[in-house]
Design brief:
Length: 522
């Protein structure tokens, strides 16, 4: 098993998706608030910013169901930066919609930001310097392996009124060479626009990441094992998925009945043809992880257990109850990744749910840290999620994006025994459940602890990000603009220092400041 101390020294961080940041355009973006959040993390002793998948969202707005596994979400682009570059004119008074500060209205945001990005593209065409054009062309060439398919996919999708690719003309569904060439020529300007948007996203992201590195903050990204059926990935590589002659899935992904749902979760994603993937030495997956690791430092592999076996449900099923466990690629897949990325893989295994000895053996065999979620820890003193059971090679969370914030969880507990056990375990009356659990996570022997920003901000159910099984009303929570002055930052800093998760030196080489005052914990 590889030594993990270089990738995962004893540290802590915060889970917050960039869409949740404050900002003027209805959704968090890569502008000033993102830089301020990085500074807030560093100033409060945090060394990880964990986020959800960064791809372009579609119907349902879920970052786990995106139009591409490679592309960035254009809604995260900072329009103010494009104004500063002179490609986009300032917003006229009264032109910006009246966006809510605490929620994302995705429909309104998509319309607004898309129109502004098209204005920026026109400005770029007319005013960009030659050196910037060369930068754009060089980036497009470097990323052609994925951006060409994505840009063509998006251009055709727009031309087809947004319809899923399986509803396009048959020649385009089957990617007939002649029809593809005709579409590429006819939609040349639209294709160039979508390339431009991706270049802008990656340009802004690179600057933000450079700033984070300067402040000593690393990024933890998220790669869902499955991809959306209506995506450039499935359209471009139909041979890698279990599809029929019309492009429709023959089997779909989900999970059996569990903590979150009595009938299981029916995700609907097409399943991989792992034999086809193995025949090309997992090249598509290697490319996907390379692209993600070009944006972040460590990747959380969502639904890790699917690499050992996944829940396969017949297409057309109404629930996930009547599925079966189908084998995944297993050790051969991770051996291939080690050849590409080294023995110490920069991965975290999301090993929640039905975890068998075979799944655990696969994770341990490649030295991947698993996840420990404290909200799941209270069945008894032998629960593996309790801190005294934690291994060093693990990442601890109070909850995930699929859970209530701790205050909401505590308020809606129906079992008094759970409250009593938490108090007995903590050795004190639980007046602030979120901070009790944050403290337990901080003191864990696990090398990494990640708090959700909602718990740091003392939020309840109003701050929930996702309710599994609900198709609407998710992913839209946002922070207010004054959150960086919330006292939770100082409390987090004190606990980080107290349980030795604070770096020995500040990022710029300055001597570490005096520890945060003990009063910050009160």
């Amino acid at each position: 098993m590889p030594d993990r101390t270089s990738t995962f020294p004893r540290r802590s961080g915060v889970l917050l998706h960039p869409t949740c940041l404050p900002g003027p355009d209805g959704i968090g973006d890569l502008g000033p608030a993102a830089y301020r959040f990085v500074d807030w993390l560093a100033d409060n002793g945090q060394t990880w910013w964990q986020m959800l998948p960064l791809g372009p969202t579609s119907f349902g707005d879920s970052p786990y169901q995106t139009l591409s596994a490679y592309a960035g979400n254009s809604l995260l682009i900072d329009l103010g930066d494009l104004e500063d570059l002179g490609w986009l004119g300032p917003v006229q008074e009264g032109a910006r919609p009246g966006f809510a500060a605490d929620r994302v209205d995705f429909g309104a945001v998509i319309a607004w930001k898309t129109s502004r990005l098209r204005e920026a593209w026109a400005g770029f065409l007319g005013r960009a310097a030659g050196s910037v054009w060369e930068e754009f062309r060089a980036w497009s060439a470097e990323h052609a392996a994925w951006v060409d398919d994505f840009a063509l996919f998006m251009a055709i999708k727009d031309d087809q009124g947004g319809k899923p690719w399986t509803d396009w003309p048959t020649a385009l569904v089957k990617r007939s060479a002649g029809e593809m060439a005709d579409a590429a020529a006819r939609l040349e300007k639209e294709i160039a626009f979508h390339r431009f948007v991706q270049w802008v996203f990656h340009r802004q992201w690179s600057r933000l990441r450079a700033h984070a590195r300067h402040r000593g903050v690393g990024f933890i990204g998220d790669v869902p094992i499955f991809v959306a059926h209506d995506s450039s990935d499935v359209w471009a590589r139909q041979d890698l998925f279990q599809l029929d002659d019309t492009g429709q899935p023959t089997s779909i992904a989900g999970v059996p009945p569990d903590y979150f749902s009595k009938t299981g979760q029916l995700w609907g994603n097409p399943l991989y043809d792992w034999r086809a993937a193995a025949a090309e030495d997992y090249a598509w997956w290697v490319g996907r992880l390379k692209a993600c690791l070009g944006l972040v430092d460590v990747v959380r592999l969502d639904h890790f257990r699917g690499f050992e076996a996944c829940w396969e449900v017949p297409a057309g099923a109404e629930t996930a109850e009547n599925g079966r466990w189908a084998p995944g690629p297993g050790a051969a897949f991770f051996t291939r990744l080690q050849r590409e990325f080294g023995d110490e893989l920069p991965l975290i295994a999301e090993d929640l749910g039905v975890i068998t000895p075979a799944v655990d053996e696969l994770r341990r065999g490649f030295g991947l840290p698993g996840m420990k979620v404290l909200q799941f820890a209270w069945s008894g003193p032998d629960n593996a999620f309790l801190p005294h059971e934690h291994e060093t090679d693990a990442v601890v969370y109070v909850g995930t994006h699929d859970n209530d914030p701790a205050l909401g969880w505590w308020k809606h507990l129906t079992d008094a025994d759970t409250r009593e056990l938490v108090a007995e375990y903590a050795g004190c009356e639980v007046a602030e459940p979120n901070w009790t659990l944050i403290r337990l996570g901080m003191m864990s022997p696990a090398h990494t602890f990640i708090a959700t920003m909602q718990d740091v901000l003392d939020l309840g159910r109003e701050g929930r990000m996702n309710l599994p099984g609900e198709g609407r009303g998710n992913w839209n929570w946002r922070m207010g603009g004054d959150v960086f002055d919330h006292p939770g930052g100082e409390r987090l800093a004190r606990l980080t220092w107290l349980y030795r998760r604070r770096p020995d030196q500040a990022p710029a080489g300055r001597v570490d400041p005096e520890p945060p005052p003990a009063e910050s914990l009160r």
